[in-house]
């Protein structure tokens, strides 16, 4: 099952690949042969068919000289970095009382008079 938004993404990718092939003046038979896939599979890739394998997409990208574009996929994981940063942030602890200890007052015999 594929969601409509994902299908739109695949269709747009397929269209970009088709346009890249046409700009290079390559026939679908030539691209399919160089990619080692059937023309039917190439049609599926260019249509954004979710049944086409990722390997087929990669082979077509390679034939068109666009394989390095894969390096940009998910390269800037902003959400993942934010979640990681939140987990790494130090937790705030309540401040402890001052570590200075008051010196005890000198005891004198008069201090014990009122306690009995």
Automatic annotation (TrEMBL):
* Taxonomy, superkingdom: Bacteria
The ranges of region (Disordered) come to 86-116
Instruction: State the Gene3D superfamilies in the record.
Output: lambda repressor-like DNA-binding domains
The HTH cro/C1-type domain is annotated at 17-70
Query: Which protein are we looking at?
Result: Helix-turn-helix domain-containing protein
What organism, scientifically named, is this protein from? Answer: Stenotrophomonas oahuensis
Q: What is the lineage of its organism?
A: Bacteria, Pseudomonadati, Pseudomonadota, Gammaproteobacteria, Lysobacterales
